[in-house]
Design brief:
14 helices, 316 residues, 8 strands
């Protein structure tokens, strides 16, 4: 799947596929032509991705082939034991988690899941969690704190589910309690924005010691479409809203909202999952090592100060 601004790359790759069907092992001319086209395609990708606009970043962050939490867990974790339920209402598949081994660490892992197939997307509500999902996350954090386990969270959501039922069951309170627990735990915490980090639904899992973002992910208080519908009364102004929201990893790093940008391979994460996840795993390990050297008695205080100080900084 190619994005609108990748049309020239799509043409190159289409020609490459045609030539591959025509070529034989002895056809050196066609092999040479394929090599030239691949070089041109890579050069074009590099040019495009070095100059992405905020709205183009939004499109990349939403690409359906980006690595989702399930794939991240399968690749980076060992001995994963899934936990379920909020012990109050029901199981919300938009937020998954459990106990696992990450390299040399025993950890608690929590992540939003959008799903890959149509059926999975329906089951996970397209990654938009309900109150029971955030209450489940809070429960997992409590377990991690009790058993002295670092917490890793992975976020890819447009936001919390805004339906009537969710509001009736206390959506805002559930998010607030998840944030409160994130600030209270006395264990190292690392959050990763994989694709979209939307609104309170993302903040509920990203109030951590370290917040990492993949290079072409986004993180904002509201979606560009939602912002446009409020300010301009039309979603058609989403491009202008994206420019104003400062939602790219680069903007947020310069503002001090996030702590690290994890590099993606040429053409973004959806083109090379392995390289992306290798980079991500190394970044998480580095941050966990640094946090493990901090006295646990000061982790909570330092985390609270970090987010309180953000509210005092002039961000615009």
């Amino acid at each position: 799947m190619f994005l609108d601004f990748e049309k020239q790359v799509a043409e190159f790759e289409g020609k490459i596929e045609e030539l591959r069907h025509m070529s034989s092992n002895s056809d050196t001319d066609i092999v040479a032509e394929i090599s030239k086209l691949q070089t041109k395609a890579e050069r074009q990708l590099k040019t495009i991705y070095e100059k992405l606009t905020p709205w183009q970043k939004v499109q990349v962050a939403r690409h359906p082939n980006r690595p989702h939490f399930g794939e991240v867990a399968n690749y980076l974790l060992n001995d994963f034991v899934a936990l379920a339920g909020d012990r109050s209402f029901s199981e919300d598949k938009a937020i998954n988690g459990g106990l696992a081994r990450f390299r040399d660490y025993s950890v608690m892992v929590i992540g939003t899941e959008k799903g890959n197939t149509t059926q999975q997307r329906l089951e996970t509500n397209f990654g938009m969690a309900k109150p029971e999902g955030y209450r489940k996350a809070k429960r997992f954090m409590e377990i991690a704190d009790r058993f002295d386990l670092p917490i890793l969270t992975f976020i890819d959501t447009a936001g919390a589910y805004p339906g009537i039922g969710a509001e009736e069951r206390g959506q805002a309170e559930a998010i607030a309690k998840s944030i409160e627990m994130s600030l209270k735990v006395n264990v190292p915490t690392v959050a990763v924005i994989l694709g979209e980090g939307g609104s309170g639904g993302a903040v509920a899992l990203a109030t951590t010691d370290r917040v990492l973002m993949l290079e072409h992910s986004i993180y904002s208080v509201i979606s560009p479409e939602g912002c446009a519908s409020i300010l301009w009364r039309s979603g058609k102004n989403a491009t202008e809203a994206a420019n104003a929201l400062r939602l790219t990893a680069q903007d947020l790093y310069s503002l001090g909202i996030i702590d690290e940008i994890v590099k993606e391979p040429l053409g973004a994460a959806h083109r090379n999952h392995k390289s992306t996840l290798d980079n991500l795993g190394d970044a998480i390990e580095t941050n966990l090592k640094e946090l493990s050297n901090i006295q646990k008695s000061s982790l909570c205080e330092s985390r609270r100060s970090k987010f309180v100080n953000m509210t005092h900084n002039k961000l615009i």
